[in-house]
Amino acid sequence: MKLLTQKNGARRGQLETGHGVIETPFFMPIATKGAVKTMSSGDMEKLGAQILLSNTYHLLLRPGFEQMRELGGLHEFMNWHGPILTDSGGYQVFSLSKTNKTTEEGVTFQSHIDGARVNLTPELSMQMQMAIGSDMVMQFDDVAAGDSNRERYEEAMERSLRWAKRCASTLPLSKGELEGVAAQQLFGIVQGGIHEDLRERSARGLMDIGFDGYAIGGLSVGEKREDAYRIAKHVCEILPQDRPRYFMGGGMPEEIVAYVQMGVDMFDCVLPTRNARHGTLFVWNQDPRQIDWTAYRDPHPTSLFYDRMRVTNESYTTDRSPLDPYCSCETCSTSSRAYLRHLFGVQELLAYRLASIHNLHFYLTLMKHLREWIVKAAS
Q: Which of the residues 100, 135, 139, 324 has an alpha carbon 20 to 30 A from that of 186?
C-alpha cells in the first residue's frame, strides 16, 4: 500500500491491484453471491464503487468450484471490471454452528441448499478463491461467537494462526493455475475477541508469517462498542504501516468514521442494502463538506451527522421532497419521498433498487468526504 498522507492516525493512500488502483480509505459493497442485491455491475460503476466483496462459501455451493473455473472467474461472470475481495467462508460456516463440526483439518457442514456435506479446509478455501479470481483473498479462520469465554477465543485464535500458515503455503502453489487471473493479495485475520493480549499474539503471529494485508475480525458481533473501539485501536497500533488494514463487517457510519481515525483503510457492511430493503434510508442532516469528523472518535457522540429515515411512514404519503437535499444520487434526483413510500406500499421491486442506490451512495460518499478531509487536515 502506498501511503500518501496521514493525520492523527487517519491514513490516505492507494492500494494497487490487478484490476486497478483503489483510493483509501474505502467501502466495499457486498456482492455475496456474485451480485449486490437488486443492483447490476453497471449500477455499481455509476455509483463509483471502487471494489466489491463476494463470498467463497456461497460461490462454492453455487455455481461451484469447477463451474467457476470454467466460467473464467467472477470478474468475467458478473461483468465487473474493478477489484474484488472474497471472504474465506469462515464466518458463514460459523453461522451454521448448529450443523457443522470443526476439527484441525477444517469445518464439515451441511449445505443450506440441498443438505450435502461439505468439508471446507484452508486449502479448499484458497483454491476456490483462486477459481473466483479475487484480487484480495482472505485466510480461512476459526470464528468464535461474540459471547465466548476467553478459552474459546484463545482456541479459535491459535487455530486461525495455524490455518493462516496453511493458507499462505497453499496460495502461491495455486497462482497461475487459472489463465488470465492477476496475482492475488492474501490477508491474515487478527482474532482474539475483546482480549488485548490475545489480539497482540494473533497480530504478531500473522506478521511473522507475512501477509499482503491484515484484517480485524471477530468484532461487531454483539460486544460493546467501547470494546470494539479499544481492540481496533490496539490492533492498528501493532500492525505494519505499509500494509492495508481491513475492519471486517463494520458498521454504522459513525463507527466507520471512528475506525478511519484509528488507521483502518477498508470496510464492508450489509447495512446499506439490508436497511434499504426494509425502507430505512441514511440521510445527511447537515452539509457533509462542513462536518468536523474528529467529533466522532468517541464511541457515543452527542449527536450524529445523519438520520435514519423510515420512508414507509405515513407522514411521507404526500411528501414531494427528495429523500435527502444533500444527496445527488439517481434516486434523490428522480424520486420523491411520497413515490418511494408508494413503491414500498405496493411491494414494487423498484423500491428496493432505488433505496439501495441511495444508501450505497451515502456510504461511498462518506468515504469520499473522509479521504478529502484527511488530505485537508494533513496539509
A: 100
pLDDT recorded at residue 115: 83
Between β-strands 20-24 and 10-17, what pairing exists: parallel, antiparallel or unpaired?
antiparallel
State phi, psi for 193 to the nearest 5 degrees: 60, -140
Distance separating alpha carbons of residues 86 and 118, to the nearest angstrom: 19
Q: Which of 43, 142, 265, 268 is catalytic?
A: 268
The CA–CA distances, whole Å, from 364 to 14, 333, 339, 358 equal 16, 17, 24, 10
Tell me whether strands 107-110 and 52-55 are parallel, antiparallel or unpaired.
Answer: unpaired
Interacting residues of 220 by C-beta distance below 8 A, sequence separation 6+: 228, 248, 249, 250, 251, 255
198/142 Cα distance (integer angstroms): 14
Q: Torsion over CA of 347, 348, 354 and 359, rounded to 10 degrees?
A: 20
Catalytic residue among 43, 87, 141, 265: 87
On whether the CB atoms of residues 61 and 33 are closer than 8 A, the answer is no
Residue 4, SS3 per DSSP: strand
Q: What percent of the chain has pLDDT over 70?
A: 96
Q: What is the pTM of this model?
A: 0.96
Query: What DSSP state is assigned to residue 312?
Result: T
Q: Report pLDDT for 180.
A: 47
Which residues of the chain carry a pLDDT beneath 70?
94-99, 173-182
Q: Are the C-beta atoms of 181 and 71 separated by less than 8 Å?
A: no
Q: Do 93 and 82 form a contact (C-beta atoms < 8 A)?
A: no
Give the number of other Cβ atoms within 10 Å of residue 377's Cβ.
16
Known active-site residue 268: yes
Question: 359's torsion region: left (phi>0), alpha (psi -120 to 50) or beta?
Answer: alpha
Q: Which CATH architecture has domain 2-269?
A: Alpha-Beta Barrel (3.20)
Residue 147 catalytic? no
Nearest to 341 by CA among 317, 307, 309: 317
Q: For the chain, which residues make up each domain, given as ranges?
A: 2-269, 277-378
